Amino acid sequence: xxxxxxxxxxxxxxxxxxxxxxxxxxxxxxxxxxxxxxxxxxxxxxxxxxxxxxxxxxxxxxxxxxxxxxxxxxxxxxxxxxxxxxxxxxxxxxxxxxxxxxxxxxxxxxxxxxxxxxxxxxxxxxxxxxxxxxxxxxxxxxxxxxxxxxxxxxxxxxxxxxxxxxxxxxxxxxxxxxxxxxxxxxxxxxxxxxxxxxxxxxxxxxxxxxxxxxxxxxxxxxxxxxxxxxxxxxxxxxxxxxxxxxxxxxxxxxxxxxxxxxxxxxxxxxxxxxxxxxxxxxxxxxxxxxxxxxxxxxxxxxxxxxxxxxxxxxxxxxxxxxxxxxxxxxxxxxxxxxxxxxxxxxxxxxxxxxxxxxxxxxxxxxxxxxxxxxxxxxxxxxxxxxxxxxxxxxxxxxxxxxxxxxxxxxxxxxxxxxxxxxxxxxxxxxxxxxxxxxxxxxxxxxxxxxxxxxxxxxxxxxxxxxxxxxxxxxxxxxxxxxxxxxxxxxxxxxxxxxxxxxxxxxxxxxxxxxxxxxxxxxxxxxxxxxxxxxxxxxxxxxxxxxxxxxxxxxxxxxxxxxxxxxxxxxxxxxxxxxxxxxxxxxxxxxxxxxxxxxxxxxxxxxxxxxxxxxxxxxxxxxxxxxxxxxxxxxxxxxxxxxxxxxxxxxxxxxxxxxxxxxxxxxxxxxxxxxxxxxxxxxxxxxxxxxxxxxxxxxxxxxxxxxxxxxxxxxxxxxxxxxxxxxxxxxxxxxxxxxxxxxxxxxxxxxxxxxxxxxxxxxxxxxxxxxxxxxxxxxxxxxxxxxxxxxxxxxxxxxxxxxxxxxxxxxxxxxxxxxxxxxxxxxxxxxxxxxxxxxxxxxxxxxxxxxxxxxxxxxxxxxxxxxxxxxxxxxxxxxxxxxxxxxxxxxxxxxxxxxxxxxxxxxxxxxxxxxxxxxxxxxxxxxxxxxxxxxxxxxxxxxxxxxxxxxxxxxxxxxxxxxxxxxxxxxxxxxxxxxxxxxxxxxxxxxxxxxxxxxxxxxxxxxxxxxxxxxxxxxxxxxxxxxxxxxxxxxxxxxxxxxxxxxxxxxxxxxxxxxxxxxxxxxxxxxxxxxxxxxxxxxxxxxxxxxxxxxxxx
Length: 1097
Hints:
The protein is an alpha+beta fold and 1097 residues long.
């Protein structure tokens, strides 16, 4: 047997490409494999002086080392380009060359530090591109990581894993969730993550339907062969003959339904209506300049330098989507505008084909097919022997053309006009939209659009709004018959028109049904809803819809006038290398406190999400008024018999001056003719910009300080000013200002000054602020959120529920309930969030809302039922609010603190609650689970009191700034004697030595005379309502002690006060209580009826 000689392939010498770290690693490995690295690392050994034999051996060793060093230098010369070699030719040894390269391209410690900063930024900005493979993305990421490590960065593997997971595209969202839930990220290796992502990527690509750029639809050709088999029922023995099959048993390999073949599948036609979401990357059109001399409409050029199909002839399109804000760039840097995108239907060699995602560029003179886009759609392109062929993976060659004389490939095509799904008329499109509307249970068209946009339904096409009215929806939404005049509540009702009764019609015999125990009384809409409008249209969400209505056109014109009047921007050409920010219109119908239309507002908003930190903005934080501050100001005004006024700054954000250069596109409907390519440079802020709130706050703060106002250091949106005994308080919430003071003329002077500086809306007395209804009278100030409460009930379908008297069943103990059935987490969070804002004026809801909020991470049926009970309680108490009485003799701030020891069944932590009272009403309250486990009730009470005094210190500072400083200790009422003793001196050392130092802040404040803990009976502990479910009697008692009353009580008190003043009548407190008790029996009558009943003749 002959021996086979094995050939050894010499490894290539690593070439230096500018990346020193990678090159040095590969070059070192190369030299080590040849046993030459010691020459670079240690250099040529020096020979000792002498002539001994040992020295002679050493001399030979040195000579050999010099020879090897020459080899290393030879390798280095081959690895380094000539330009770099010219800078290192004076280096005599390979070690010197290596050191020179290292100093130049790796740098010193300072250089490494600078490089590391740049690499850190690059690492943070790394994101996976749409369509990018997992291998490519991980390769880019790990390349940056390796560079960072070579520059001295110490990076944990878990950090890299977390970065990769949060940088993946949206199609990997469920994969990321799965990995995060099933793996410990601190121990998950990058290789394991890489393998998991590759598996999921394979599944994603396998499950996605292949979108076709070109689909072939040949006219129906019946292949009849010679001989038998060409006719129906034949056995197909002749050449070319075929038997007609029963298609009812045929399964389509595309949609997997029976009745048709794959090539006949309607999914192909339906796919034509899909539109891809393209990025905003600049489209390159490199070969267009070479084609400018050709202008034949029937020619389509195959262009490898064009990144997208495009044409300048609108007649080619069978469907089109407009409003595409893109540009294409030519080889001479000239740009053309892309107006729309759609599908084109052509005939090539008698075969009908559809090209999807074609750009419509009106200024383009030729038709271009992008080779890159064809390959992206799954097609293969072969150019060989002067012929270009386009292959479909299933259908083979679908296009073929020969090279022209000027070395170009083009196709001759004609417009196809018959028998294809692409040519859908408006009527067909409307019928299709109506069909999907019926299939989804008569879902509104906006809902269907959302399903299609979010890919929530496979096969749902992108539909347009239909003008056709659905008769079924109209019939289904019609209410009951007209009210015949009888009031369901026993009183007089609104006048109804006479009803002409139709003659009875014969009815079919009813089908027997199981007996259901339900009331057979006639159900009618409650009379208090008689004045509400049904079928109110929503605000428009698109410019196309808004411009059709006069009210919105006027609103948009008013917004543009406001912007130009304020000199917010200037029109100019876009600087090179700068990307403008888009803008959009937002429409909102403004309502007053009675739910009536106040005005129609159109706001031009910048798309701030496209801004980049450090380039378009830096600082974004802007403070707003705390609602505790607003309630405190109202309580102070009520005690002092002051009036509270309100101002609104028109287009507030347009006043803030920008420090950065920001460019925005021209808004829809207001593009300057002849200057379409220009953009606006912002001189002042625009709504939607990330820095807009900050810029506005800096502007308004500078104004207040310029007008000699003092800013409260504890509340940066609270400003005060005093002059010659006159005093004014101003609180700012973005563009809404409330102000009050002891002199009306001083307030008017401030108002006039504001109107000279800014464009303002004078809203008069404070009536409606951030959804809070404010009623002022000579008896006090009442705040409530009745309109918002009704909106919450309607949003969650509880407006017709049966009311209850307390928000939670006494003794209820909620826990995680892991064995219970899960409910919709998103809906539960929406409910909790809606109820949380309702606690602004409803302290009686604070505990139960905070209680159910503990289970938002994993809500169960038991938690949902508890939340629904809150809505049932809200149903009967929508008009409850806090009442601050005027002229109270006691101006002092009083606090109450309490806790529920180990009330949480899951972690046995206690619940803290506190409330502060002024003007007989609550101004600040809270309910919160403690962060540590208390070992006794004393500990729990002590921790709760410590949280209470922290809020007390803040309130004292606010009151001091508004002219009501607390000269004496603030009394904090507590029902635990041990906690009170512990706050005064360190008693019970053995039981309290483990308490955290931060809780002993309470003892320091007591010793300094800032607060004083006093004992109160448990039945009078108002804060008890914030810590646990109470019995009904105790709950109602404490709710009243909080100053929470019904709006009807406030109106009665206001009416009686007015009548007593005008007629000299003295209504005592006893008489008022008797009147209120009588009114309890007439709970269904309206407030207006109650007032009419109380009028004294």
